[in-house]
Amino acid sequence: MIAIPEPLIVANWKMNGLIHEVVDFTKKVDGKLKTFKHKAEVVFCPPFQAIAKASESVKHNLTIGAQDCFAAKRGAFTGDVNPAMLADVGCQYVIVGHSERREHHKETNKDVHDKVLAAHDAGLKTIVCIGESATQRRWGMTQAIIRRQLLESIPKSVYADDIVVAYEPIWAIGTGKTAKNEDIEKVHEAIRNLLLRRFGEAGQGVKILYGGSVNKKNAKKILALGNVDGVLVGGSSLKADDFWEICQSCP
Ligand code: PGA
User: SS3 helix, strand, coil % of the chain, rounded to 5?
Assistant: First the structure.
């Protein structure tokens, strides 16, 4: 029997936050986790420059992650950061394939695939982001896009335990528009079926997060949906109190 995964709540600060702000947030959320009643894992992904300080500030159960990595092990890649470097500053997770990376840096499924492999080699778990654009949705292509992104982004050699999948419809990110609950359930069910086909029974244990305008008001309903094992939160994670309310919305 594969146990139902405990919820995973992830704060993605994107390109926001100076070190003092990151440390302040880390201490607040980590301090609250000391007496957290819910069985859930909470991950904070600050911007690169503040990761080390965030890791040093953790005393309890807050987990630190990064927002991206480069796939090469070392070499002449000016400005890039590899997964071993992230592990070195205390990261346990790395987000890969976020739609903002795909859009602004032209990252492909193959790039995401290579990043997952590299992260796996360095002992990091990856949060693999997938999701359709507004146009793709209008054309009824959501399921096909999700399927392709998932199949092409997950390397053959990784295990179910190594990855988390985040479904983030692009049109819902930072827009205040959340996908309808029934649509979230439908897509998450399709993702679950693909994971079961890919990993066998172990696919049941892969966490599937929803992301896209999650806030303290809608988090509880979203977290209660079938096959939703957590949320990836951008804008609403920037204030510790709001993010903490989202953490407390876990079933
Ligand atoms: P949002 O961002 O919560 O601001 O919509 C989510 C994300 O991009 O991960």
Answer: 45, 15, 40
Distance CA 89, CA 64 (A): 9
Determine the 3-state secondary structure of 108 from DSSP.
coil
- Gap from CA of 67 to ligand 1 centroid (Å): 12
What are the tokens at 13?
């600060």
Phi, psi of 127, deg, nearest 5: -105, 100
Tens-digit pLDDT profile for residues 177-197:
888 999 999 999 999 999 999
Which residue's alpha carbon is at the smallest distance from atom 9 of ligand 1?
234
Active-site pick, 100, 107, 132, 168:
168
Plot region of 198 (φ>0 → left; ψ -120 to 50 → alpha; else → beta): alpha
Task: Yes or no: say if 70 and 96 are a contact pair by the CB < 8 Å rule.
Answer: no
- What is the 234 CA–ligand 1 centroid distance (Å)? 4
Which residues are CB-contacts of 10 (< 8 A; sequence separation ≥ 6)?
42, 43, 44, 45, 65, 93, 95, 127, 166, 209, 230, 231, 232, 233
> Which atom number of ligand 1 is nearest to the Cα of residue 10?
9
Q: What is the pTM of this model?
A: 0.96
